[in-house]
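Chain A, query sequence.
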Amino acid sequence: INAGLRWELFTPLRNKDFQMNYPVLGGPGRELVDIRLTPHDRFWNTEYKDFGPKFGFAYNPTWLAGKMVVRGGFGMSYNHLDVALFNVAQLDNGPGLANYGLCCGTPSDWFSTPFAGGTIKYSVGTNNSVTSYPINPALATGIGANGFPKAFNGVSPSIEAYGAPPRTQSPYSYVYSFETQFELPQQMTATIGYAGSLGRHYARLVLQNFLYSTAVGSATAPGNIYFAQTDSVTSYNSLNTRLERRLRNNFTAGINYTYSKSLDQVSNGDQANSLANQTNPANNATEYGPSDYDTRHRLSITALYELPNIHHGNEIIKAVANGWQINGIYTYHTGFPWTPVTNNLNSVAANPTSATINPVRPLAYFGGAGTSCSNNAFQTGSNFPGGGSKFFSTTLPTGKVYSPGIGRNSFRGPCYTDIDLSVAKEVRFEAMGHSSMLRFQANAYNAFNILSLQPIVNGNAGGPANIANANFGESSAANAGRVIEFLARFQF
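Chain A, predicted structure.
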């Protein structure tokens, strides 16, 4: 039995140069129109209560002569929020980037007014330094009481700001497993077990315009405000089996099969890109579904064969003929999931004048689509003959309010097959009083150049996940073909 307690301290994201402009929401009903930018030295408060217990055991029954072992464990683990959430926040640029909507930098004999009525300053710097260019006084609008730039030519510039709730929690997971292993004849072992996890307070980046009203009376929100919210959950359950033959007669091999299911509300929530987009961010519960990387069935077979050594009086012959090794890995798994979307519908605003998502999931699935995961099905789109519009409802009946009619990641992409091979040659010798080894190896990834199509990518874009797209249900690209590499290593 092993048991312990781990304490982890994750400090918040800071800016060492100067304080950051942090968005603070207004009161109820006016969260965005009364939002303020205030100077802060951190994005959230430090959390001091991240204690994670650990427990594990292994039991080898003596009455089975040591031919079986039962083992398992439980642990609680914490993690830091990924800084990639704020990569686009321009933390080193003070209050962020303001968009003044200026157009255009034209001379007097071109269209429009010259240099936007003189508000665009054209000047040459005194040297190559960016600080040698003069400041444009027309854009020195100053900062209003709310911390945002004042109006320019009667229009308030749009600004993008990033923040996080002050009591942002560290993501954590409960991880647990239980398995048993048997010793079989012929140097073989069999393992069967269960592994799972539950994740809590995982992050997602949410545009607050989807959650709160962007206009109240004559007041409007000053721009796009993004918060990193740790309100998402994950779960994973798997059956794991393994049959292994230990090295005997120069040959060893193993077969692994996993039947698993991974669920979450956002799979790339710790990133600030389109892959982290949700089709219904105002109702996170409706986003719970298979993870973007969920594979229901996974099989891998590994093998290693060492050619027998030749005993010969000629040292050159022995050096050339001995020390050869052949390795191989076969991998197969079912396809990654994806979400059909449509531009014909908008999500329901969480509050009056809140922003809405488009595209979103359709209203219903009529059934009848193919389920093949073959390359042909995703090269031709044959799982959806006649186009995606025949299989989904995208017209909202009069008087009805939109609600997604299919689950997130409810369809599967192309299956994956790969064979990797390698050949290695080892030469062992004595040098400078030490045993040394020279290893040459050639690796062939995707050795037989098997076509492997890329999964259909989510991101709410207009690609093959969009029902109206002519290439709906098709893979848009392929993974790398055969790659061969050669390497040498000297060990002494």
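The chain is about 5% helix and 40% strand. Residues 315-321 form the longest helix (7 residues).
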